Records
---
Amino acid sequence: MLMGEGAAAVVVQRAGTGNGPVHVRVRGVSMNCDAHHATAPDPDGITRAVQDAYSRAGVRAEDIDLVMLHGSGTPRNDLTESSVLRHVFHGAGSGPRMTAIKAMTGHTLGGSGLLSLVMAVLAMKEGTVPPVLGLTDPISEAAGLGLVQGAPAAGDLTIARSTRLASEGSTPSRSWRQQPDERDEYRTDE
């Protein structure tokens, strides 16, 4: 695993407040803490967190256009993440484009989640997903997933998702939408 240094900050405001530009809208957030193992993520707990985030966001797996992978490049995490992705996107058509930025930034630990969020916002804004740097031979468990390799992939990107596979079984999963829709305006149940 390549370590990196980096940080990011974002401003989160409730819909209808503030006067700055809106880049994305948070649609759903979920978190688990399964205490499965100190360093081995639990696929079932991660799958539940992802599905709960989709439920809270009011989206289905087939609605997701972009997945920002945890992508640590470690055998155990990559195997688990691939297994979860295959399960979540089973039957969801061609599935979303998927990328990871740790090969570019190194693993920034606590900063990695927000760095992935910023990259997803830029990808949605530009309509371009960067490739997983240096990925030439994905593990067999990732076969059929929409991994972006070699060159950037262009397309309409409206809904993105990010999941972090943290130590000690803590897994936050978030879904967000680039364009506001009728469900975003002045919601009071959030």
---
Amino acid sequence: MSSDPRVLGHAHTADRHRKSGQKARLRALIALTLIVLWILAALTGFLLYVAPAGPHSGGLIMFILTKAQWANVHFWLSVAASLVTMMHIVIDWKALTGCVRFLTSVERKPMP
């Protein structure tokens, strides 16, 4: 008897496991990217919040960059984080709708 998985009928199962593993890695990468981008956007936003305000504060140097440059970094981090958030919603749409359906259902079974 052959040990080839195609002969045993397991080729489809192996492909499914490989694809689910790739999707899990993609989800993990997106989640990690979201965490990093939103933390950096929050930190740069906090830095801009505590920085002195005024007509000439844009040229103030803080941690190597000027306040105006930090504002640009903050803007582009926020744009990137928003785009990755949209990708996250698209990729996990089925899970999101299932979770919302569960949370809004009236006939939920109590948790043990």
